[in-house]
């Protein structure tokens, strides 16, 4: 895997297109995600630990919006339950093609099925673990309730959903502070003000964040017994929802 530096927004772009997970993003994605998402490595590591706790024998673990397979690999190296498989789904052919090469080089024995599809079109069944790691935020708001209900219906009793998201804050001061600190995080990782501004413009109307309360209410209304934040770093958080 090429560990290229993310310079996609380092030069003035004029008209800025909406963000897409295309080949140009794939080439720099590992660098981009580490420098842009606070706590990303910690979340990935913990997904493996959570999967080791919740994966059930003869069940399926789903990584929905798998990108290059970081969460898939984390689960693959921690799951010990017998006869488990992982289904990793992404709608970007460029992402999935690179992910396939990474998975092929991996030596863990848990079988992985890669599926190129819109995650909303995937049938969730016999699942003990479902991971949505910064992917729900790219689904249209009007579709999110039905999608979470679909995941709940496909989970076994005792199953787990890991939902990681960029959060919005209803309090204006808090929203302003969290945004400021996220930008400070990116600047500390070498991004310029122009890069931060242009990336933000590309994500506008593509990535739609919600508050934790909105996420929790949706999860509870979909049938989950409870849902709580287990990790938060500025305006990025990960939630565990239990069936």
UniProtKB/TrEMBL annotation:
Keyword ATP-binding applies: no
Catalytic activity: prephenate + S-adenosyl-L-methionine = carboxy-S-adenosyl-L-methionine + 3-phenylpyruvate + H2O
InterPro entries: CmoA, Methyltransf_25, SAM-dependent_MTases_sf
Methyltransferase domain: residues covered: 63-159
Record-listed S-adenosyl-L-methionine binding positions: 40, 65-67, 90-91, 118-119, 133, 200
GO MF entries: carboxyl- or carbamoyltransferase activity; methyltransferase activity; S-adenosyl-L-methionine binding
Keyword DNA repair: no
Any single Pfam family the record assigns to this protein: Methyltransf_25
Keywords, comma-separated and alphabetical: Methyltransferase, S-adenosyl-L-methionine, Transferase
EC number annotated for this UniProt entry: 2.1.3.-
Any one GO biological process: methylation
Subunit and interaction comment: Homodimer.
Family: Belongs to the class I-like SAM-binding methyltransferase superfamily. Cx-SAM synthase family.
Biological role: Catalyzes the conversion of S-adenosyl-L-methionine (SAM) to carboxy-S-adenosyl-L-methionine (Cx-SAM).
Protein name: Carboxy-S-adenosyl-L-methionine synthase
Species per Swiss-Prot/TrEMBL record: Methyloprofundus sedimenti
């Amino acid at each position: 895997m090429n560990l290229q530096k993310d310079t996609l927004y380092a030069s003035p772009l004029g008209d800025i297109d909406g963000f897409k997970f295309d080949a140009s993003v794939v080439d720099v994605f590992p660098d981009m995600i580490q420098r842009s998402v606070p706590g990303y490595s910690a979340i990935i590591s913990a997904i493996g630990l959570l999967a080791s706790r919740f994966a059930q024998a003869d069940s399926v673990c789903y990584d929905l919006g798998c990108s290059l397979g970081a969460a898939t690999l984390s689960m693959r190296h921690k799951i010990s339950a017998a006869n488990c498989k992982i289904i990793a789904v992404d709608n970007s052919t460029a992402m999935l093609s690179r992910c396939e090469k990474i998975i092929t080089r991996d030596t863990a024995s848990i079988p992985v099925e890669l599926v190129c599809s819109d995650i909303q079109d995937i049938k969730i069944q016999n699942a003990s673990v479902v991971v949505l790691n910064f992917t729900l935020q790219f689904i249209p708001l009007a579709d999110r309730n039905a999608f979470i209900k679909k995941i709940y219906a496909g989970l076994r009793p005792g199953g787990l959903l890991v939902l990681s998201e960029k959060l919005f804050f209803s309090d204006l001061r808090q929203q302003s502070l969290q945004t400021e600190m996220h930008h400070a995080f990116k600047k500390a990782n070498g991004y310029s003000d122009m890069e931060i501004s242009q990336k933000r413009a590309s994500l506008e109307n593509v990535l739609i964040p919600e508050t934790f309360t909105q996420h929790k209410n949706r999860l509870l209304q979909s049938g989950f017994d409870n849902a709580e934040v287990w990790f938060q770093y500025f305006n990025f958080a990960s939630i565990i929802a239990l069936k």
